[in-house]
Every structure is written in C-alpha cells, then in structure tokens.
Amino acid sequence: MSSIDFKALFERSPNAYMVLDRDLRYVATNPAYLSLVAARLEDLLGTFIFDAFPHDPDDPDNASARLLRESFERVLATGQPDVLALIVYRVPFRTPNGVELRERYWSATNTPICDADGRVTHILQHAVDVTEVQALQRRLEAAKAIAQ
Predict the structure, then answer these.
(1) DSSP of the chain
(2) d(CA 5, CA 28)
(3) Do 63 and 86 form a contact (C-beta atoms < 8 A)?
(4) Once rounded to an integer, what is the mean pLDDT over residues 108-112?
(5) Which of 14, 29, 107, 128 could disulfide-link to 18, CB 3.0 to 4.6 Å?
(6) What are the backbone dihedrals phi and psi of residue 138, each rounded to the nearest 5 degrees, phi first?
C-alpha cells in the first residue's frame, strides 16, 4: 500500500483550508483559500488573522470578528472542532474590475490539531463561501412572499 502525500492533498484540494498557530497567526494556506480571499501566501504567513482580515474596524462591536475569535477560543480551550454554520465576513474579493473589499457569507469548521500529549498546537479551518447560496435563498423567500 502506498502512503498518502498529505502536503499534496492539502495543496491540490479544491476546498479552502488554512492553518493557524495558537497565537492565531497563519502558518499555512492552500491555493483554494488564497483564491477565496484574494491574497498571497507570502503576505499571510506569520500574520495575525485579525490584522489580515479585521472584518470591519470601523464598527465598534465588530460582531463577525468577535464570533470568529470566539470559535477559535473554543477550539483552543476544548480541543474539539467548532462550526460556524453561517457568518458574514468582509474580505478582499477578486472581480473582473480587480480586487474589491466585499461582505461574503461563510460556513467554517475550525478543527484542532493536537500534539502527542493532546495539546492543541494549531487550528485547521475549512471555509466555504456560501454567498451565492444565501442570495438564492433570499430571492426564493422574496418570490414566495410575492406569491402569497
């Protein structure tokens, strides 16, 4: 039986993944993730996630960043995966006119990566951009409301 090349699997996956250390600094991303957030790996490595993507620094509550931070904190505290079924988060988005900052809808699973002693050393995030699904759902709800 041949062994699986997990680095190649990570790199080639069409699913967006990133890895943070305990200080919530980027240690790895795959190309699918970089494409979703219109970023370059060299600009993210070692960067605190909320410096790279603050969501809305002009909003004093910044609820989306708070929800994301709380999810990471739960993973670090419990050693269990945490799911954000739906979160709105503003990120750079590649358009035909260039890169624009846009609010996108995300579903994210934050999974602990543990050392041999069971201590969480990193967090693996699988992020799915569900913006188009949300837009379709809103149009369907509007059509239903008109039909009634």
Answers:
(1) -PPP-HHHHHHH-SSEEEEEETTSBEEEE-HHHHHHTT--HHHHTT-BHHHH--S-TTSSS-HHHHHHHHHHHHHHHHSS-EEEEEEEEEEEEEETTEEEEEEEEEEEEEEEEE-TTS-EEEEEEEEEE-HHHHHHHHHHHHHHHHH-
(2) 16
(3) no
(4) 98
(5) 29
(6) -65, -40
Q: Say how far apart CA 46 and CA 23 lie, in whole Å.
A: 10
CB-CB contact of 123 with 112 (8 Å): yes
pTM value?
Answer: 0.86
Distance of CA 72 to the CA centre of its chain: 11
3-state secondary structure 54-70: CCCCCCCCCHHHHHHHH
Token pair for residue 134? 């949300």
Residue with tokens 């943070």: 20
* pLDDT of 133: 86
